[in-house]
Amino acid sequence: MLVHEIRNRTTAIGRFLRSARNAQLVTDSPEFNTNLKAAESAAVALESLAETFAPLASRSFRRGRRDAVVEESIGRCLTLSEADLKKAGVPKLIPPKGTTRVAVDPGELDTILLNLILNALYWIPKSRRSPQLAFSIRRIASDRRVAITVNDSGEGVSEEDADRIFLPGVTRKPGGIGMGLTVAAELVSEYEGNLVLVQPGKLGGASFTFDLPVKT
After folding, report:
1. CA 72 to CA 107: how far, in whole Å?
2. How many Cα neighbours within 13 Å face the side chain of 172?
3. Which helix (DSSP H) or strand (DSSP E) does residue 77 occupy?
4. How far apart are alpha carbons 145 and 139 in whole angstroms?
5. Domains (ranges, CATH) in the chain?
6. What CA dihedral angle connects 181, 185, 186 and 191, to 10 degrees?
7. Predicted TM-score (pTM) of this structure
8. CA separation (Å) from 216 to 61, 98, 136, 167?
9. How many Cβ atoms are within 10 Å of 32's Cβ, its own excluded?
10. What does residue 80 show for φ and ψ, rounded to 5 degrees?
């Protein structure tokens, strides 16, 4: 309902803003220009919020009644992030091979991975390193859980932010809402797991690792 309502409202707001942008052609008011830019920025932030929760909105089943294959989820998220991958200069990625099945809602797993991927793709171009994104999957705890890691070649996370990045509203992105990592961490926690930052990461930037229960 939240995603539906946000998208309905931003569609209407977007139409008005386009009309306002056209009206700008006949006005030189600095106040008008400032307010218009602020409104456009707010609309983009709302759309970003809707995208953060979108995978959850498509679920038509209850948690625990389905399982997910990690490699398939990575593939879906890479497809959804195709434009962002191209923009970040990351070469075309092939999802890891295998069928690692976890006892997690597919929509929730997609949400976790998508937030981590989009976060990585934002920071990768800001580093001088070769743009790279990679995934690793390994069994832990006597094969009863699986650890999934998203590695990037970005500039990493500062010491100042390392202990705060999972808190709501904490972000270094201009116009960001600071909810992506919070949502991902909360979902992992629901499955008695932890989402942690590992630095320096495998590719020189940040690595985020989380663990989920294996489907038995």
Report:
1. 12
2. 14
3. helix 70-80
4. 6
5. 2-57 (no CATH), 68-213 (3.30.565.10)
6. 150
7. 0.72
8. 20, 16, 21, 33
9. 13
10. -65, -30
Q: Give burial (CB, 10 Å; 0-12/13-18/19+) of 22.
A: exposed
Strands, E, within 48-184: which ranges? Answer: 68-69, 101-102, 133-140, 145-152
Residue in the block written with tokens 């879906």: 76
Report the alpha-carbon angle 103-177-197, nearest 5.
50
Report the amino acid identity of residue 121: L
Residue-wise pLDDT tens for the chain (216 aa)? 677 778 888 888 888 888 888 876 656 778 888 888 888 887 887 777 677 666 666 554 455 557 999 999 999 999 988 889 999 999 988 889 999 999 998 888 998 999 999 999 999 999 999 999 999 999 997 879 999 999 999 988 888 777 888 887 777 676 666 778 888 999 999 999 999 999 888 999 999 999 999 998
Q: CA angle, 16 as apex, 14 and 21 as ends, to 5°?
A: 90
- At position 132, the amino acid (one-letter code) is Q
The dihedral built from the CA positions of residue 167, 147, 115 and 91, taken in this order, carries a sign that is: positive
Nearest-angstrom CA–CA distance, 153 and 131: 6
